[in-house]
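call fold target=Sugar ABC transporter permease
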Amino acid sequence: MSLATSPASAQPMTASRVKQERRKAFLDTRMSYLLLLPYLLLLLMFGLVPIGYAFGLSFFDTIDMVFWGPTNYQFVFDDFRVPASVVNVLTFVAIWVSMTVICVGALSLMLDSVGRRAATMLRTVYFLPGAVTSSAIVVLWLFVLDPSVSPFQPILQMVGWVSRADVISGIGLAGVFALMAYFSASGGWIVVFGGALASLPTEVMEAARIDGASRLQLALRIKLPMIWRSIVLMGILSFATGLQLFVEPQLMGMAGTQFAQNDWSLNQMAFQYAFRMGDFGASAALSTMLVGSSIAIALVIVFATNFYKLD
């Protein structure tokens, strides 16, 4: 009797359970969107709306408020200073992103191999320079690069640099800006990587140690492939941030009049168009192209690396 009725009684229970699972999934999804709502509002207010406004403004002559199509874009392309600024920014980005990916990755892996207390203390030390604003970082580095007061005075003088101008000329402005950006941003990424490495499954690490993996092999063959998405994300965000370089070259005039350049980076050019020439249309055109280039390159990297593909 029980064998004959069990299939019939099991059917309503299965349907009820499916309904409960669907309701739970719906509630989880709704809660996820609720948690995302503050970020989406901020993205709309301070990201999408300004970009859309700048894109529309780029098609107007903002002096006479006349629509004139792509003329602002043509003006930007015809400006002889823009190609030089592009080369400057790309050189800076290449140095900075390479330095950040290699050094931050190596430091994070090394910190993960030492004791937890020592690693926490060192991460805090690396993070502290990032708590300083960019303008203060520039002023600080103007002292660091001055052989007369720098703590690295013996090294600088050993190379033959006896003045701040010698150091900046020897390293190059792109290299100087890359050093400033690296020491201001690397600490935050080291903390992020510390969290990513701490979340790796311990059973995988233990299995590798039992198989005889050394610390170097464990870092390069086990940990590094498991955090590659964090490295790609760091590269994308660093690239996008590097294209917006502004404060560092804008304040370099403090190092000497020979280093005062108001058109070294693309953001400086956009600033010149808007607040020195009063041409907000050309500034919006250059800014729109800058944002579009960042998004396009980020999308290429994301799709080329299958960034969102589940393993």
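return ok
Residues 1-11 have pLDDT under 50 and may be disordered. The radius of gyration is 27 Å.
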